[in-house]
Write a structure and sequence with these properties.
Blueprint: H1 12-15, H2 26-39, E1 45-48, H3 69-89, E2 96-100, H4 124-128, H5 143-167, E3 173-178, H6 192-197, H7 199-212, H8 219-231, E4 239-249, E5 252-257, H9 267-281
The structure holds NADP nicotinamide-adenine-dinucleotide phosphate (NAP).
The site of NADP nicotinamide-adenine-dinucleotide phosphate has 17 residues, from loops.
């Protein structure tokens, strides 16, 4: 039986309009964070779920600050939100962080083994900052790899924030998770950009993966998995956990605790990514941690 949802700790949503946040523009992300900090309502669960990919594009797109768009939206904006909102999250009644990653972060598995593998090298591209097409410093852009790299970053970031909080004695439940392949029947959804570029290939891909081989998850069940991670009370300890919706066979998926790729388990890489990202965001790596309040709401 599913555990009961946790009660909402704050009355914030009752009276306020939710802020709109364009993750492709860090000044917009900062305005959104500032709005929430001024509201000063504790956050029970912070869900970092937004993401995009534009596989098939030959040229990179750029965020308002000049970062490659996939990394800007899927990773950098999320670390900015996370660092800025940590003080509110740590004041939640039973705080939890949920980060949506993907199985494609893992070159040894499923979709991650198809096409160019994820791999951020020594993060030379992040060190370079705006104008770098790829995180690993390569000058040759590959949209599919940029997406895989961004999902690897999601896992590394989730692991690192869990480690930092544990070290300073304020442990948090941190879930990174993978929904599996989700191809909606609508015109929208995750593959909308790729569909515009290559409608025939995308239609065929959907037909084979979703309808013939039945390897996909439905959008509603993927949403339910996310809602479960965000609101249910699983018997998990504080710290980092990774859950993945694994394909067992046609029409058979199992959502279970999993082990991320070897690169996603590197503590050294997680620390480097956190520090370099903070630097690019104009934050210190400690920002958000220093102002933590231990008071519960
Ligand atoms: N679909 C899959 O097969 C799959 C597989 C593994 C992991 N994932 C992950 O699941 C998460 C959700 O994806 P989805 O499948 O639900 O795709 P989706 O239907 O395209 O939803 C993506 C969400 O991200 C938001 N978003 C994109 N760019 C944004 C920006 N600049 N600022 C603010 N919000 C932005 C979108 O907002 P708008 O609608 O307003 O653009 C949308 O709400 C992503 O992190 C993705 O990487 C998806």
């Amino acid at each position: 039986m599913a555990p009961p949802p946790r009660p909402c700790a704050s009355a914030w949503a009752a009276n306020s309009k939710p802020p709109i946040c364009d993750l492709a523009d860090l000044s917009n992300v900062e305005r959104c964070a500032e709005f929430l900090l001024v509201e000063d309502a504790p956050i029970d669960t912070l869900v970092l779920n937004a993401g995009l990919q534009y596989s098939g594009a030959a040229e990179p797109l750029w965020s308002a600050q000049g970062f490659e768009l996939t990394i800007a939206v899927n990773h950098l904006a999320h670390q900015a939100l996370l660092q800025r909102l940590l003080p509110l999250l740590l004041r939640g009644s039973a705080p939890r962080l949920v980060v949506t990653a993907s199985q494609v972060h893992d070159p040894s598995n499923g979709g991650g083994a198809v096409g160019p593998p994820a791999g951020v090298g020594d993060l030379a591209g992040l060190r370079q900052g705006p104008g770098a097409p790829m995180l690993d410093g390569s000058g040759i852009f590959n949209a599919e790899k940029a997406y895989k790299d961004s999902k690897l970053c999601n896992l590394l970031m989730a692991r690192e924030v869990g480690r930092r909080l544990r070290e300073q004695g304020t442990p948090l439940q941190v879930f990174a998770w993978s929904p599996g392949l989700v191809i909606p029947r609508s015109k929208g959804g995750f593959f909308r950009y790729s569909r515009r570029r290559n409608p025939v290939a995308q239609t065929l891909f959907a037909l084979v993966a979703r309808d013939l081989l039945r390897l996909t998850e439905t959008p509603s069940r993927a949403g339910a998995l996310l809602a479960g991670l965000a609101t249910a009370s699983p018997p998990e300890a504080t710290g980092f956990h990774y859950w993945s919706n694994r394909v067992l066979g046609p029409g058979r998926l199992r959502f279970e605790a999993s082990t991320p790729s070897a690169e996603a388990c590197s503590g050294t890489l997680a620390r480097q990514l956190w520090s370099l990202s903070a630097q690019q965001l104009g934050l210190t790596p400690e920002q958000g941690f220093a102002q933590l309040s231990h008071a519960s709401c």
